[in-house]
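quick one before i forget lol
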Amino acid sequence: MSLDRFIQIKTNNLQPVKGRVLLSEPFMGDYYFGRSVVLLAEHNPEGSFGVILNKKIPAHLTDFIQELGDTELPVYLGGPVETNRLFFIHTLGEVIEDSVSLIDGLYWGGNLQDIKELSRNKVLTDKNFRFFLGYSGWGAEQLSSELKRNSWAVTHIKTQQIFQTKPEILWKKLTLQLGVNYKLWNKFPADPASN
């Protein structure tokens, strides 16, 4: 199959909504978005935003919030916007005030005092929390335009997939869910020049 034919494949018809993920097309070479999995925390006519799930950075949570004591949770690259702020998702919406439900069992944000208390009680783990430096954002109609250009495919994700799948294989595992039209996405090397 020629590369031209591959690029012309029509995008999937699943619409972006809060709690779904965007999978970048395999040739996107951008530092932030190359082979990225972006969890949408919001999508509406004014714009969209979310965090990149699969790009761990060489830092720990206590590098940013010393009050959390010896909590050595990893931090992930959330996106190119507001890279001086931390954002988080978790599974403890029933005990963290002001949490926003994204999908079944997964929540966005919440009260920082509750987080500190959970940290003191050794409840924060990489199985129930993920922290991100910065976020990914799109203005009104920007994401729709990128979807029409096949820059992204939209798919579902389950809470356990986020916390139980190794970040370095998450993009590959989720692209396999897209069906036969996307079968070739996993065949292309991450760096075409190395082929």
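fyi The chain has five helices and ten strands.
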